Amino acid sequence: MKFGGTSVATPEARAASCARVIAAKEQGFNPVVVVSAIGRRGAPYATDTLLSMLRDIDPNVPPEPREIDLLISCGEILSSVIFAHTLKIMGVAAQAFRGGQAGIYTDGTYGNARITRVNPEMMQRSLEQGYIPVISGFQGIHVLRDPVQGRALPGGELTTLGRGGSDTTAAAVGAALNAEAVEIYTDVDGVKTADPDYVKNAPTLRTVTYDEVAEIAHLGAKVLHPRAAEIAMQYGIPLWVKSTFSEDPGTEIVGKDAFPGRRVTGVTHTGKLVYLQFDLSCASEADRTSLETRIYELMSRNHLNLHLPNLSPESTGFAVPKDQFEVVKNLLDGLVIPVPGGKMTYLLQIGRDASKEVETQAELLDPIGPVSRIVAEVNEGCTMVSLVGHEYMQQPGVFLSALKELSDAQVRVLQTTDSDYSLSLLVPEADTRKAVAVLHDKFGLAQAI
Amino acid sequence: MAQNPTRNKVSETEFEKRRGINRVEVREGFAQVHISDLNEPLNDNRLKILAAAKDANISLDFLKLTPDGMSFLVKEDQANIVTSTFKDLGANVAVEPGRHVVMVHAVNMRDEEGLIASIVLQAIKSGAAIGHVSDMHDRVLIVVGKDDSDRLKKQLEGNLIGAHA
């Protein structure tokens, strides 16, 4: 049973969460608990608050990833101890464990480690002694080895699991213990057909497949991390998303075979995106390859998360999260790309109006030879609205229905992309709410179960 | 929840798959349709094309909007129907048969920042003429001509499998 930030944020929420654990024990199960840090962004012990304590010392000096992991893992440790003690006060013996103590081993990537194996011995011992193990989510331990002798060095390095870390911990612990089920408790009733902030009364889906939930998460919803779904699917562990605070039965995540039907599952939306479209029509084919290579090399090397990559003979484009746009702009605006053996030097300009950097570069390049300016059109206020479906997207007429509905609602579609499970539409950010609502309505999701 | 602490003893369990790309495969048998020179109102005329496709029971993939029309993929055996259907609407239609979809598999690829850019970069470096790029939670899909698909597959396998591990 995994409890997210809002389920452990206050004494009342913790009491409700603990009551669920006790109820499970009274039903004859041996619950094992995984907890997130107490509270979400801004709360005193939330991950970002702990991180800001370190960064605020001197914003110009980046902290070491190893030290960051040690610090931010404290939020979950604190949460596990408080949760275990609350269970004790409510009459049930419980033991708190750090991820490493619980036998969760990871690779050595600080901040985004992968769980490589779980040794459940300590959790099993705890259960056999009549305790409920309460495990700090989002963390594990990486065993360092002596490079010469190969032996494991004492202690091990604490690592954190990155996005979806506590969900992933729960799924891994569930698999290692061969659990009857993994239940992810949160503050919504389960997986919804749309963001309830955008579509009031969006229904809760009773069943979704692992692929559907992974695609929903990939396209913007944050209900369950696909890493947890991946592990549960791999080990055939029934996975549920439920609310701590309601009696709704929640959503069961199942294998594809358990859901033979065809349907539209839901409508998602990403956060704010900036779409860049580079006009390459002035470049020869060989030069275009050099230009595109340089652009994507920089995006890759700087770990930028691209959406809607789009290549054609005349142009190339992609969207990036708005918070990464400044990095992209700094990398590309004013970038000079000399083409090997070519007669032309290219100068990138981000946006219609040339920045000071671009003008300076142009002046410096002027005596060297011909310079061609590649201008990227920038659309800063975009978002991606996606229709996610199961065995649905290949049906004739799906594009027509989606595009016509948005056209009738006066929502301009800037670009589209689609896959086996989804159809995504890039729309102006100001129209996000309208686009989600009309697609939800058009595809009959108000009646979804 | 764990049911019985002694019944389910498991010594050690291995978990998450290696990060980064784990497999590249090729789907064959597609044609890419390019609709161009559509008159204004452009959006209405795009919708007319899509309505005609629906009426002809044609399934579309990889729809991309272009400045004067759009392009998409159909099953290769539907290419002839496409040509006749859309030409009746006065659209400029070009059909490229023999298109393959190269699928690059990577678990939870949005967690691996820069990975999609790396895949696109390798696709460009392969010299393949890329018709379209799309992505899902666990794969990137790249549309290329049949002559390019093997080269692209080898480029991706040679440069990216294990690179993010």
Low-confidence stretches of chain A: none
Structural class, from secondary structure content of chain A? alpha/beta
Dominant shape of chain B? elongated
Distance between the termini of chain A: 24 Å
Helix content of chain B: 25-40%
How would you describe the shape of chain A? globular
Rg of chain A to the nearest angstrom? 25 Å
Low-confidence stretches of chain B: 4-9
Mean pLDDT over all positions of chain B: 84
Largest sheet of chain A: 9 strands, mixed
Structural class of chain B: alpha+beta
Beta-strand content of chain A: 15-25%
**What's the Cα radius of gyration of chain B?**
21 Å
Number of domains of chain A: 3
- What's the CATH H-level homologous superfamily of the largest domain in chain A? Acetylglutamate kinase-like
What are its keywords?
heterodimer, A: 449 residues, alpha/beta, Carbamate kinase, Alpha-Beta Plaits, 3 domains, 9-stranded mixed beta sheet, 8-stranded mixed beta sheet, 12 helices, 21 strands, globular, B: 165 residues, alpha+beta, 6-stranded antiparallel beta sheet
Summarize it:
Chain A is α/β, with parallel strands linked by helices. In chain A, 33% of the residues lie in helices and 25% in strands. Chain A is built from 12 helices and 21 strands.
Write the layout of secondary structure elements.
The complex is a heterodimer of chains A (449) and B (165).
Chain A: E1 2-3, H1 11-26, E2 33-35, H2 47-55, H3 65-89, E3 94-97, E4 104-106, E5 115-118, H4 121-128, E6 132-136, E7 139-142, E8 157-160, H5 165-176, E9 182-186, E10 207-209, H6 210-218, H7 226-235, E11 239-243, E12 251-254, E13 263-269, E14 273-279, H8 285-301, E15 307-311, E16 315-321, H9 322-332, E17 336-338, E18 345-350, H10 356-365, E19 371-390, H11 398-408, E20 415-418, E21 422-428, H12 432-442
Parallel strand pairs in A: 1-2, 1-9, 2-6, 3-6, 9-11, 10-12, 18-19
Antiparallel strand pairs in A: 4-5, 7-8, 11-12, 13-19, 14-16, 14-19, 15-16, 17-18, 19-21, 20-21
Helix pairs in contact in A: 2-3, 5-7, 6-7, 11-12
Chain B: E1 13-14, E2 21-36, H1 42-55, E3 61-66, E4 69-75, H2 79-87, E5 92-106, H3 115-125, E6 130-135, E7 139-145, H4 146-160
Antiparallel strand pairs in B: 2-4, 2-5, 3-4, 5-7, 6-7
Helix pairs in contact in B: 3-4
